[in-house]
Design a protein that fits this description.
Number of helices: 1
Radius of gyration: 32 Å
Number of strands: 0
Strand content: under 5%
Order of helices and strands: H
Mean pLDDT: 87
Length: about 70
């Protein structure tokens, strides 16, 4: 009877430990998923900024041409 009781206690302990490990693993997976989501958002923001910079560069180039033409008048 004592042997069965100690095995039952050990089994309960192992099941609890396994449950704790599953919870920890789930938290890590969710954290990784969130990190990937944030990284994707950062990449999208960077692309949008790059487009804005290219547009600004083009506008500055056009303004320089206009300034040059106005100086000749």
């Amino acid at each position: 009877a004592r042997f069965g009781h100690s095995v039952k206690g050990l089994l309960t302990e192992k099941v609890t430990s396994c449950g704790t490990d599953v919870i920890a693993l789930t938290k890590q997976v969710l954290k990784g998923s969130r990190s990937a989501e944030l990284l994707g958002q950062a990449a999208r923001n960077m692309v949008m900024q790059e487009d804005a910079i290219l547009h600004s560069e083009d506008s500055l180039r056009k303004m320089a041409i206009i300034t040059t033409h106005l100086q000749y008048q």
